[in-house]
């Protein structure tokens, strides 16, 4: 086939890759400069600037009558903005919404939408005119203060920028998405901005800290509360930051229950969707304690009423609403704008200085315009004065001239006038010859001389120029004196929900099916050793209590699952219930994956770097990781331990690092040598200082080895061997940390048989050994289920598989040797003990009397 692209062809060959790059770059710059981003000087995108200019040309000012929106849109798209009418009308609508703009620039008449997300009426039904603030953006535009450029078809001109007497970019903010970049600038208080600019004029090197004495932070049109200044400072300093906003609420009392009332919403929050969102969360039981939600908003403002159930705590419900709904949102600040036809991210000081520079340019151009106009008028008045001084001669000259042209020539030649002066004299009416008119001309001439002198001084003096800017800003501040709407809290932590909740001791239970609850520990009365206990929870037929522990309401719970993931939950966020309540599904509190099972729950008060988290698995593996690695938990959790396929987590313990813990190779070698010596001689010794780990197996074996033998490793590691099993069907069932050999360890079997044994009776071994006997097991005792460190200031709580819980005085349990079974701690009959834990002693005198009577 003959190549059609021969050298004689009129078709030019181009590289398609370069062509696409060039075309896309042109398109990108068109979107960035001509549509999506505001100018740093007047804070307007092209469409907003064109709408205001078109309205100014139509004469639709703040004092005029409203004009149909369709007429305004028609002028904008016909003369200046070659895009769809819906794009222009949508922009016009937003400029009129008081919930979108801090200071609206359009005064709308008709339906311009609502905070519930309702659309505005069609443009043929609505009317609009400019607000007083919009006129401040356009003021002096007719005095050659800005450059004009041809419109899209070259038939007329439009302003490249507006004079803008107010810092509109920061005042009303802006948002937009261009190609590869976006802007999101929050609105601010006009009073604060003007105060900061006035200060900046007098203190050219003012720091951000100084300016923030005036500009406290964003001021959103819908109000709300900003928590924390860190994000504000970061945004003002770098141009990027995150500002957390919460709805403003208050609590009302109704008979014997609380009512949460929402008074203000975070910026750009849809009220109707928020109410729907709350209703859905209540329906799905993800938020409990709410009985009714209704909207009582009217023309006076927002009022969303959330009625609570009698037993609900308003602080906790409110905290859950902030966490789960748009009652709390984050405004991501990106202060990106166009300057010198280029997009750039600005700091707060940059934008304030740019506005000042813009105003100086505008005032200089306006002053030059006024000066030229004054000089031109003065020139004419000087000619008229000459005419009045020589009126008889001039009348005779004009009378004797054959036509105007000849008269003009004679005037110019005789009195040394300019053409303009001569024309003004010829156009002068006879009425100007009166004495009064003569006096007016002389007075106007004197005023012009003073005016010209004043304007010339402004152009020569930077101080006078800045004083003029200050005068104009003060005038605007007095005209638009509107107080701040959005409240700012200095520190987010200052209003932590924990401050509103008493720090009480709780018993937390979790069932096999994943139902969790908390019950005040005082609800469980202390009983004598061998007691039958009280029902701790009512479970479903196929469910049973799998784990329980005691913790304070302010503690953090770390949930470790069979997949090795770790999740967070504050104790106070667990629903409080009675002893027999079923509880709430834990999947509604933390984001567990499908079929993911909780294997260990660890309470902690902090995430100090001096602490470690020790994991023990069923296969006898131990792993130790610094607790600080778990302090920043995502909603999907973090990897806590890497488990083998046939392994699962048994327990996890927080351990305080020894001050004298030895981790270097030489000293660890010395530790190993001492351990070997002790093993060979079968001696008991306290020579090795520091904490020890103690792990027990189902078949009654145990091992004690130094904590220092388990180094801290990363979160996703597997760990090392803690104990080797003698029997194939054996597995690790529990572990504790021993501070010293004087401590006592309580071990208990499935049939409630238990004993207290001094830690020193268990021989110190090397990690990975087969261990020694911990408890003598028989058919009467069944398997060993767990161990705890005895603390005589605490009580023991034991939980059975049927859901019964017994509270026993630790001192009532007898001490026994290592190779013994012990005594009946819990009378389980046909039941079995599944878990044990320590809890604070009761100090009630009444309960002590009951114990004696029993």
Short description:
With 854 residues, this protein is α+β, with helices and mostly antiparallel strands.
* Range of helix content: 25-40%
What is the CATH first-level class name of the largest domain? Mainly Beta
Class by alpha and beta content: alpha+beta
Number of strands: 41
Shape: elongated
The count of domains is 4
Percent strand equals 15-25%
What Rg, in angstroms, do the CA atoms define?
42 Å
Q: What is the CATH fold-level name of the largest domain?
A: Neuraminidase
Can you tell me about this structure?
With 854 residues, the chain is an alpha+beta fold. It has four domains: 120 residues, Topoisomerase II, domain 5, CATH 3.90.199.10; 79 residues, Gyrase A, domain 2 (2-Layer Sandwich), CATH 3.30.1360; 121 residues, Topoisomerase, domain 3; 351 residues, Neuraminidase. Helix content is 31%, strand content 25%. It contains 19 helices and 41 strands. The strands form twelve sheets. The chain has a four-stranded mixed sheet with strand order 14-9-8-17. It has a four-stranded antiparallel sheet with strand order 10-11-13-12, covered by helices on one side. Strands 21-18-19-24 form a four-stranded antiparallel sheet, with no helix packed on it. Helix 7 packs antiparallel against helix 17, helix 13 packs antiparallel against helix 14 and helix 16 packs across helix 17. The chain starts with 15 loop residues before the first helix and ends with a helix. One of its GO terms (biological process) is DNA-templated DNA replication. It is found in: Cytoplasm. Pfam families: DNA_gyraseA_C, DNA_topoisoIV. Its EC number is 5.6.2.2. It catalyses: ATP-dependent breakage, passage and rejoining of double-stranded DNA.
């Amino acid at each position: 086939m003959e190549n059609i692209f021969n050298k004689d062809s009129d078709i030019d060959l181009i590289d398609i890759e370069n062509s696409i790059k060039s075309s896309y770059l042109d398109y990108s710059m068109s979107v960035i400069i001509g549509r999506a981003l505001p100018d740093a000087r007047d804070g307007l995108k092209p469409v907003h600037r064109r709408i205001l200019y078109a309205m100014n040309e139509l004469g639709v000012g703040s004092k005029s009558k409203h004009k149909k929106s369709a007429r305004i849109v028609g002028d904008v798209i016909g003369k200046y903005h070659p895009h769809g009418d819906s794009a222009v009308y949508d922009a016009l609508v937003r400029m009129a919404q008081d919930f979108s703009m801090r200071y609206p620039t359009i005064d709308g008449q008709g339906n311009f939408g609502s905070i519930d997300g309702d659309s505005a009426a069609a443009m043929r039904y609505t009317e609009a005119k400019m607000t007083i603030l919009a006129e401040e953006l356009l003021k002096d535009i007719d005095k050659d203060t800005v450059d004009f450029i041809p419109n899209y078809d070259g038939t007329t001109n439009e302003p490249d920028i507006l004079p803008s007497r107010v810092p509109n970019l920061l005042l009303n903010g802006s948002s937009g998405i261009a190609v590869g970049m976006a802007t999101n600038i929050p609105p601010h208080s006009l009073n604060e901005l003007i105060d900061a600019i006035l200060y900046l004029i007098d203190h050219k090197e003012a720091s951000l800290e100084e300016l923030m004495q005036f500009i406290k932070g964003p001021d959103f049109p819908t109000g709300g509360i900003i928590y924390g200044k860190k994000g504000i400072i970061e945004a003002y300093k770098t141009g990027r930051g995150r500002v957390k906003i919460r709805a403003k609420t208050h609590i009302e009392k109704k008979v014997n229950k609380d009512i949460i009332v929402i008074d203000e919403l975070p910026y750009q929050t849809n009220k109707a969707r928020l109410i729907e969102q709350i209703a859905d969360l209540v329906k799905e039981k993800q938020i409990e304690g709410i009985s009714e939600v209704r909207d009582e908003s009217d023309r006076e403002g927002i009022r969303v009423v959330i009625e609570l159930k009698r037993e609900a705590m308003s602080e906790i419900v409110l905290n859950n609403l902030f966490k789960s709904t748009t009652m709390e949102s984050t405004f991501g600040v990106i202060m990106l704008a166009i300057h010198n036809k280029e997009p750039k991210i600005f700091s707060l000081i940059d934008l304030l200085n740019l506005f000042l520079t813009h105003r100086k340019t505008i005032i200089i151009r306006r002053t030059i315009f006024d000066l030229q106009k004054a000089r031109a008028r003065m020139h004419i008045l000087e000619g008229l004065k000459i005419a009045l001084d020589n009126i008889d001669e001039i009348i005779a000259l004009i009378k004797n001239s054959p036509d105007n042209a000849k008269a003009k020539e004679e005037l110019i030649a005789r009195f040394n006038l300019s053409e303009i002066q001569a024309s003004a004299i010829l156009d002068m009416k006879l009425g100007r010859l009166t004495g009064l008119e003569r006096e007016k001309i002389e007075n106007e001439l004197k005023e012009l001389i003073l005016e010209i002198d004043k304007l010339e001084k402004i152009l020569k003096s930077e101080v006078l120029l800045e004083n003029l800017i200050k005068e104009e800003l003060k005038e605007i501040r007095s005209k638009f004196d509107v107080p701040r709407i959005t409240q700012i809290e200095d520190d987010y932590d200052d209003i932590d929900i924990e401050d509103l909740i008493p720090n009480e001791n709780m018993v937390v239970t979790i069932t096999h099916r994943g139902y969790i609850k908390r019950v005040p520990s005082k609800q469980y009365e202390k009983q004598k050793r061998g007691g039958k206990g009280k029902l701790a929870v009512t479970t479903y037929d196929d469910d049973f209590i799998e784990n329980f522990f005691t913790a304070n309401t302010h503690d953090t719970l770390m949930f470790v699952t069979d997949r090795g993931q770790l999740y967070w939950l504050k104790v106070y966020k667990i629903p409080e219930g009675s002893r027999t309540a079923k509880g709430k599904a834990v999947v509604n509190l933390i984001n567990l994956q499908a079929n993911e099972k909780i294997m260990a729950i660890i309470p902690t008060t902090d995430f100090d770097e001096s602490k470690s988290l020790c994991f023990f698995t069923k296969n006898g593996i131990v792993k130790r990781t610094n607790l600080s690695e778990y302090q920043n938990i995502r909603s999907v959790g973090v990897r806590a331990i890497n488990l083998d396929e046939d392994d699962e987590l048994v327990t996890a313990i927080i351990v305080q690092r020894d001050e004298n813990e030895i981790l270097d190779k030489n000293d660890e070698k010395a530790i190993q040598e001492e351990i070997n010596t002790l093993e060979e001689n079968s001696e008991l010794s306290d020579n090795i200082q520091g904490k020890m780990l103690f792990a027990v197996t189902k078949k009654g074996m145990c091992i004690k080895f130094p904590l220092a033998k388990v180094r801290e490793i990363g979160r996703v590691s597997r760990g090392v061997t803690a104990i080797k099993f003698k029997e194939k069907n054996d597995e690790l069932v529990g572990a504790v940390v021993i501070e010293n050999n004087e401590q006592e360890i309580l071990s208990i079997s499935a049939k409630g048989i238990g004993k207290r044994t001094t830690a020193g009776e268990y021989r110190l071994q090397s990690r990975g050994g087969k261990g020694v006997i911990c408890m003598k097991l028989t058919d009467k005792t069944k398997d060993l289920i767990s161990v705890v460190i005895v603390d005589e200031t605490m009580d023991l709580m034991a939980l059975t598989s049927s859901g019964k819980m017994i509270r026993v005085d630790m001192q009532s349990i007898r001490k026994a040797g290592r190779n013994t079974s012990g005594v009946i701690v819990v009378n389980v009959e046909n039941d079995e003990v599944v878990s044990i834990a320590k809890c604070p002693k009761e100090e009630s005198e009444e309960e002590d009397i009951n114990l004696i009577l029993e």
